[in-house]
Specification:
- This protein is an alpha+beta fold and 271 residues long.
- It has 3 domains: 7-49; 56-170, Uridine Diphospho-n-acetylenolpyruvylglucosamine Reductase, domain 3, CATH 3.30.465; 177-270, 2-Layer Sandwich (Enolase-like, domain 1), CATH 3.30.390.50.
- It has 11 helices and 14 strands.
- The strands form 4 sheets. It has a 5-stranded antiparallel sheet. A 4-stranded antiparallel sheet has the order 11-12-13-14, sandwiched between helices.
- A hairpin with a 2-residue loop joins strand 8 (150-152) and strand 9 (155-156).
- Helix 9 (221-228) runs antiparallel to helix 10 (233-247) and helix 10 (233-247) packs across helix 11 (252-270).
- It binds flavin-adenine dinucleotide (FAD).
- Flavin-adenine dinucleotide binds next to strand 2, helix 6, helix 7 and strand 10.
Length: 271
């Protein structure tokens, strides 16, 4: 199918884009989610505001404690390490497993978070790394943890006229260990189950986040606690069962599937 007719604008800066955005308009970054939706007429827009060429949105910076990554960074930029890395390799490794290289050349960090697909990789990674979104809007800039920004399936707290400009990610210390496990139906597909585990004794941090089959990525507090204690074997198995039971609504197959990805990610972070 063809998209319904729409207008098109290409702002020269974020400030310019902010003045353009109105009711019925949509930002387009990599277009890898929005264009198929428009093509299938599952979404209709009055005007596309194209931010894909704004170099401002690809800027990154670094302080002693954190790295700020522009929301316009493409998955391939992250895979190729064209940014300061707060994650000791976790982000680059995950980027390389998103879709196919041609999609990774277009899809962006900001587009992925704004889309809030429950099976997407970046929301899980950014939650595990405790990232904060930086958002420009008509009333100025605001900041919000990615965890709180993503409310539900395809639903965020972003309001009309707001643009995700960057993500601030606290740096992992040299003591940090990370683990990631993703199960897909075929190579390059969205995750059926995706788990990211971070244990950083240098920052007294332990987080485990699961995505894939839920309405949005979820934290696993008991597993994170067990990871912090260095628990393995029965103690870890029991923590996984408790957290998965707490999520509710999973059938036996789903429990086995997510249990396996969680175990793999956690074992890697404990190794
Ligand atoms: C075949 C295929 C396989 C894929 N596999 C995976 C996968 O395995 N894992 C994964 O994580 N992703 C996957 N994706 C998704 C893809 O990688 C992109 O991340 C995703 O499509 C969104 O990024 P985008 O830049 O293309 O956003 P767009 O499609 O341009 O926009 C998506 C939404 O975000 C909004 N938006 C975009 N940028 C901003 C911004 N800066 N501020 C506010 N709102 C904004 C748009 O208005 C739109 O609503 C896949 C996509 C395809 C087509």
């Amino acid at each position: 199918m063809k998209p319904a007719p729409f207008n098109y604008a290409r702002p020269q800066s974020v400030a310019d884009a902010l003045t353009m955005l109105g009711e019925g308009d949509a930002l387009i970054a990599g277009g890898q989610s929005l264009l198929p939706l428009l093509g299938l007429r599952m979404a209709q827009v009055r005007r596309l505001v194209d931010i894909s060429r704004l170099s401002e949105l690809r800027q990154c910076s670094e302080t002693t404690d954190a790295v700020v990554l522009g929301a316009g960074l493409r998955h391939a930029d992250i895979e190729d390490g064209h940014m300061p890395d707060p994650s000791r390799g976790l982000l680059a490794r995950m980027a390389g497993n998103i879709a196919y290289r041609s999609i990774r050349h277009q899809g962006t960090l900001g587009g992925s978070v704004a889309m809030a697909d429950p099976a997407a990789d970046w929301p899980v990674a950014l939650m595990a790394l405790q990232a904060t979104a930086i958002i420009a809007g008509p009333k100025g800039e605001r900041r919000q943890l990615v965890e709180d920004l993503i409310e539900d399936t395809y639903t965020t707290s972003l309001q009309t006229g707001e643009i995700l400009t960057a993500f601030e990610i606290p740096k992992l210390s040299a003591h940090a260990r990370t683990g990631v496990s993703k199960v897909t139906r075929k190579s390059g597909a969205f995750a059926l189950s995706l788990c990211v585990a971070v244990r950083d004794d240098g920052r007294d941090l332990s987080t485990v986040v699961i995505g894939g089959a839920f309405s949005r990525a979820r934290r696993l507090p008991k597993v994170a606690q067990a990871l912090k204690m260095g628990a393995a074997g029965e103690a870890m198995r029991s923590a996984i069962t408790t957290d998965l039971d707490g999520l509710g609504g999973l059938d036996a197959y789903e429990k086995r599937l997510h249990g396996a990805t969680i175990r793999k990610a956690v074992e890697e972070a404990l190794a």
